[in-house]
């Protein structure tokens, strides 16, 4: 007597994005890869490391910075004063655009960014300290560290 075969299970319906195709992005909390997700999702599962990352509430403005310890791109909610890197645990200052200023290093001419109101800024390339503000030529020093 022949044995009846069970039917194959029906495959799940393929994912269909919203009609307007709106997508957003965030950084995976596990492996730091950039994840794309449909607008309205509450969490995203990473296809690389399977970590589930919560999606911030709609309307939340996000900002980005590069970690000073390991140079990983970090995303955070705009308005935060500091951001801890999940890779190297460095606590990074999160400054708004109106809280920072720029000056060229007095020695190597590298463009430097510093917190607005600071009196001087030390170049990470050549260790030259450039005074900012009124007079820059008399207070510059070179530190050999």
UniProtKB/TrEMBL annotation:
The Zinc finger LSD1-type domain is annotated at 28-52, 67-91, 105-129
GO cellular component assignments: nucleus
A Pfam family of this chain: zf-LSD1
Which cell locations does it reside in?
Answer: Nucleus
Keyword annotations of the record = Nucleus
Listed InterPro entries: LSD1-like, Multihaem_cyt_sf, Znf_LSD1
User: Known SUPFAM superfamilies for this protein?
Assistant: Multiheme cytochromes
**In terms of domain of life, where is this protein from?**
Eukaryota
NCBIfam families, A to Z:
LSD1
Protein known as: Zinc finger LSD1-type domain-containing protein
């Amino acid at each position: 007597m022949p044995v009846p075969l069970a039917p194959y299970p029906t495959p799940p319906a393929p994912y269909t994005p919203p009609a307007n195709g709106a997508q957003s992005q965030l950084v995976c909390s596990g492996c730091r890869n950039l994840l794309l997700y449909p607008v309205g999702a509450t969490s995203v599962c990473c296809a690389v490391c399977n970590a589930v990352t919560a999606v911030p509430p709609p309307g939340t403005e996000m900002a980005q910075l590069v970690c000073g310890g390991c140079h990983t791109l970090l995303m955070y909610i705009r308005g935060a004063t500091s951001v801890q890197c999940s890779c190297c645990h460095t606590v990074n200052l999160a400054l708004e655009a109106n809280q920072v200023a720029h000056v060229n290093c007095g020695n190597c001419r590298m463009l430097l960014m510093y917190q607005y109101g600071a009196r001087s800024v030390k170049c990470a390339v050549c260790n030259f300290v450039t005074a900012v503000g009124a007079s820059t030529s008399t207070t510059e020093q070179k530190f050999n560290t």
